[in-house]
User: Fold these one by one.
Assistant:
Number 1:
Amino acid sequence: MKQMKTSWSNLGVVVLGQQGPEFVLEPPSTLVFSNTTGSQLSCSAHGSPTPHVTWITSPDQRSVSAVPGLRQLLGNGTLYFPPFLAQDFRAEVHNARYRCRATSSVGTILSREVTLRAGKPSPRFIRFYKNYSISENR
């Protein structure tokens, strides 16, 4: 008997005229950014009743909370990482894995895992070359 694989994050459950959560916007699998720019993870879902979007850490599934100056939870389902000083880097915030969770009375779905990497920008090297002319000896 052939077994079918199904991703729970893509199932739309319908119960008595209600619809379980479905992602409208799912976060990427990887987010890399500089501490000088900051970044954000966006996630949104729809369903009936309207699902509530939260964030959890992966794989331990702990609820994500705000960390002043380093991580903010916005009301629209966005997890915001503002620019920060290099000395304020915290691995549990900036070198972590996250998942978006959408929950309603009909059900709960989890997004793919997002691997987040933040840190100092890489130094940029600029090389200047003088014009050289190379002739072939014959």
Number 2:
Amino acid sequence: MRTSGVVMPIFSLPSDFGIGTLGRDACDFIDFLASADVHVWEIMPICHTDSSFSPHNALCARAGNPLLIDLQPFVDQGVFSSRELSRMDWGRDRAKISYSKVAAAKYKALEMVFDALGFLSDSSFDRFREDNQDWLEDYALFAAIYEQFQYLPLPLWGDGVARRSHAELDRLRIRLDRRIRFYEYLQYLFYGQWGQLRRYAAQKGVRLMGSMTFELPETSVELWTDPAANDVSFRDAFADRWKQRLAWSRRLYDITKVYRRVDEEEVFAFYEPTWVTADDFCETLLQIGRASAGDLAAAGRYTHAFQKGFGERAAARHLPHWYDRTAIAYVGTCSDDTIRGWIKTLDKATAQDVNEYIGTALPRDQAWSVLRTMWLSQAAIVLSPVQDFLELGSSSRLSGFENPADNWTWRLRRGSLTNRLAQRIARMNRLFDRGGRQ
């Protein structure tokens, strides 16, 4: 296999309502990838996040993010009009997501959908609840309680709730019954739309790469129901938990990326059943889970990031001439700057090294020269954020800002992905044998 991919969070897609969704704009992005002869779309985690809105902070590893639900189908069903939606406050900045405003407006709209449709006789909703009973009930209860406690961390809920007192939970189930059903219904809507999007991607020859964090956050359903969910002490228990997570990921993605970060070191591991068995992958994850920061690089020896090949902490394995045919290589990770922004931050000596490596010192050529250098490597898959194809600067990075509130807020401007850009990417893919369905 020799192919290429684009990193683009769904939440960053263009939208008239403050945040990208699973609807028409996601399908349009798939159309763009297909026309560019790109066959992997890395979407970032799609989980229901905590109040930080970071995609790495999942309330539940299996629950989809309600903010990504497309509202157009409910306009078509007459629940509300486009004009009613446009009157809501989704935030005025077309270049950044205002999560507080988007969340308030989106949940107001989704409550209208629930009031109109959530209690109608619907065998498909009943079937969804039955098929997902192993996680859905706990998740919906947890989400309702999290809202009840005004999004405070789990340890501040009180011992009775935090330790799952039967009496306390029974009382809350009665008190929050309607809200619990609301959160169940949102998952039904989310996964209905997700299934449609995945089928569309498959039709276009685009494989979806999803990702999940190695450690689950403290305020999550998994740690609430199983405090040992992050434990790596016992091999068999660890493997059982991860096999369940991988089985779920196979229902959602074609390729799954597992991410772990310790101090300044980070590692990715990739799961696709034709590449590696679940047993072998769980063994790799166990090594990653037990590794110290200094050992992570060895555990993730097949993953590379161009930007990490330069500077004071440079590692030669990140340079494209070292990539082998099993490698999965990135321009940079989601916490790194864009190419243009990164080069501007380099000291003179390091910048000269980069320019000599990519063969140009001209700012207008640097981003595409880095991409070209990556694309001609031996790596099996090379991936770049869409921002680098667009040659955008630091303000368009996904995360790593000094102010954490600016993380995960970047939005793609509608009309940025032109036919000319698609043709340029397609030419590069064909030139370096990364085109065609894999």
Number 3:
Amino acid sequence: MINRLLNAATGWYVRRGLRAYHHFPADKTAVILVDAQRAFVDSGQPLSGSLAELARWARARKFAVVHAPIAMGAGGPFKTPAHRRIEQALAGQADGPGLAPAVGPSPGDIVLPARKTLSIFGLPETDALIEARGFEHLILAGPLADLTLDSSLRDAAQRDVHVTVVSDCVAASTPAALELEVRHTMPRYAHLVTGLKDLERRVGG
């Protein structure tokens, strides 16, 4: 009951209190692929194909494609279970920290320095990029919905930007964790949570 009330209240606030944003200007829109790295995106997974399709579509629309990888040793001396899970995955293969081949990078993409924080906004270069390029709309996707994407989304909500999460371009630790994120957590912080096909329809191509 409390969750339903909170979801309803948050939805009303987003619809009424925040700026409506129905257009995605190419020069003000960035698709940010959060931790789309070999350790987390297997080439045989459906997610790999979905992220590749999102990246191709974004480049065709002249949206900025930004890669935001996480580094080994994230979390410093006081590591949480999330940090340890990420570090274990990165260390599990020699090329684990590298960007997944399915998503690039392609010429013209932006690759941020590997960060040691769960949120992409723990890296000063993220805010600097948004300000320098005048981005108003961020489209987020990535394989760690319940870890780094969740943290990044919450931080993005504190900034004056419109945020979309592409629901079929994310994954999580477990199916239950993914369902919780997509159905309950993400709609509280993102202005729009939608699938790639619906996003293409909204944008118009």
